[in-house]
Design a protein that fits this description.
- The protein is mainly alpha-helical and about 170 residues long.
- It has six helices and no strands.
- Helices cover about 85% and strands about 0% of the residues.
- Helix 2 crosses helix 5 and helix 4 packs across helix 5.
- The longest helix has about 35 residues.
- The mean pLDDT is about 85.
Length: about 170
C-alpha cells in the first residue's frame, strides 16, 4: 500500500511539466537572489565605501544566497529574520570586516522590507485594475500547455510508428 503511494508520488514528480516548472523556478530564484546579493554589494560599496575586488563581490553574492536559503529553511524565523543576518555576519566578517558586516546586513534587511512593501502595493494596484487581463493571459498559457501536450503525444505516436515500421537488423 505505501509502496504504491510512493511510486505514484515519484511518477508525479518525474512528470516533464513538474520538472520544467521546477527548473524554471530554480533559475528565477537564482537570478533574484543574485540581484539581492548585488544590492548587498552596492550597500557595502557605496554606503560604507568598502573597496571590493571581483573575488570579494563573488563571495558576498554567494554568501548572501546561502544566508537567504538557510534563513528560509529555519523553522520559527519568519522571513529568516535574524538567521540571515547572523549567517551574513559569520561569513562576511572575514571578507569586509566586523564593523561593516552587521550594519550592511541590517540596512539590506531594511531595503528588502521596503521592496516587499512596494511589491505589495503594486500587486494591489494591478489586482484591482487588470483582473480580466490576468485571466486572459492565464487562459492563453493553459491553451499553450494543452497544445504542447498534444505535440508531445504526436511525437510519441510517431516514434512508436517508426519503431514498428523499422526492419530489424540481422547481424
Amino acid at each position: 500500500m505505501k509502496s504504491e503511494k510512493i511510486r505514484s508520488m515519484v511518477k508525479r514528480l518525474l512528470n516533464w511539466k513538474f520538472v520544467l516548472v521546477f527548473i524554471i523556478n530554480l533559475i528565477i530564484y537564482a537570478i533574484v537572489l543574485a540581484i539581492l546579493g548585488a544590492i548587498l554589494v552596492l550597500v557595502c560599496g557605496f554606503i560604507f565605501e568598502v573597496d571590493l575586488q571581483a573575488r570579494e563581490v563573488g563571495a558576498i553574492i554567494t554568501y548572501y544566497m546561502l544566508a537567504w536559503v538557510l534563513g528560509f529553511v529555519v523553522p520559527g524565523a519568519p522571513g529568516g529574520i535574524g538567521v540571515r543576518e547572523a549567517i551574513l555576519v559569520l561569513l562576511l566578517s572575514a571578507v569586509i570586516g566586523d564593523s561593516v558586516t552587521l550594519s550592511a546586513a541590517l540596512i539590506h534587511r531594511l531595503i528588502s522590507i521596503i521592496g516587499d512593501f512596494i511589491g505589495y502595493v503594486i500587486a494591489l494596484l494591478l489586482k484591482n485594475s487588470d483582473d480580466e487581463l490576468v485571466r486572459y493571459k492565464l487562459e492563453c498559457f493553459q491553451r499553450e500547455i494543452a497544445c504542447m501536450d498534444r505535440q508531445v503525444e504526436i511525437l510519441k505516436q510517431e516514434a512508436c510508428d517508426e519503431a514498428a515500421i523499422m526492419p530489424t537488423r540481422q547481424s
